[in-house]
Amino acid sequence: MPRTTLLFAPILLCCTLHAQTEGTCLATGGKPALDRLFEQELHYPEVANEAGIKGEVVVTVHLDPQGKVRDLAVGRPLSPECDAEALRLVRMVLWKPATSGETCSGKDHYLAIPFDPARYRKWLKSRHAQEGEVFQLPVDSSMAVRSAKELDQQVSPAIPNGMQGLPTYIGREMRYPPEAFRYSLDGTVKLEFVVEPTGSLSNMHALQDVGGGCTDEAMRLMHRIAWRPGVRTGQRVRSILQVSIRFDLPKETR
Predict the structure, then answer these.
(1) Which CATH number characterizes residue 74's domain?
(2) What is the extent of the structural domain holding 68?
(3) 60 with 159, same domain?
(4) pLDDT tens digits for 102-123?
(5) Which phi-psi region, left, alpha or beta, contains residue 169 (left: φ > 0; alpha: ψ -120 to 50)?
(6) At what angle do helices 117-126 and 30-41 cross, to 10 degrees?
(7) Residue range 190-213: average pLDDT?
(8) Number of domains in the chain
């Protein structure tokens, strides 16, 4: 993986220098990733929940050309506590140009963050339990996303044998998509995502796609695992991870 990164870095830099066309920037992973982020990471302010406050906070996002958040503003407030939580969540979103080689335009982006007590109760039930000593550590408040090289302790799935046990887990739990099976589609899905300090996964998207529902199935497999976050200088941090999942048709179908 490190060699691949070094080999491709000069190419990406070259493309950036020669293509300065402004384009549309999107939240990484699109609406499914945003919905998952809210489901896994939103904390309903207790005072707002007890008061029965319900609705949406709309946040306006200003990006720089590289897709970094330059400024956030609450365009439609709900309550001071909900507004603050909405801003926190939006800071967790990574952005990228819709078209490779373009830069992000200066236009505003709007994200609506839902606050619904009934929905929140369902979300809480769907979240993985935070088990393990790592969750006793404090959380890095910088929101910075760290690479594997920056971590003192790597992320790991909470399954037998950790990362080494991932192929066994995938082989046992994979549901080969009917559409992919029907059209004899196979190949490798390569996913990239952020492992949050809570152990949830955010900003998930495919770097390498396979049709017929294989990418959706790969994402399902990753989300259903409880993850242990990376550690840096004694704190739980956000960190980036890539996972490749191979879809092989049974030999008799080839």
Answers:
(1) 3.30.2420
(2) 22-126
(3) no
(4) 899 888 999 999 999 999 999 9
(5) alpha
(6) 90
(7) 97
(8) 2
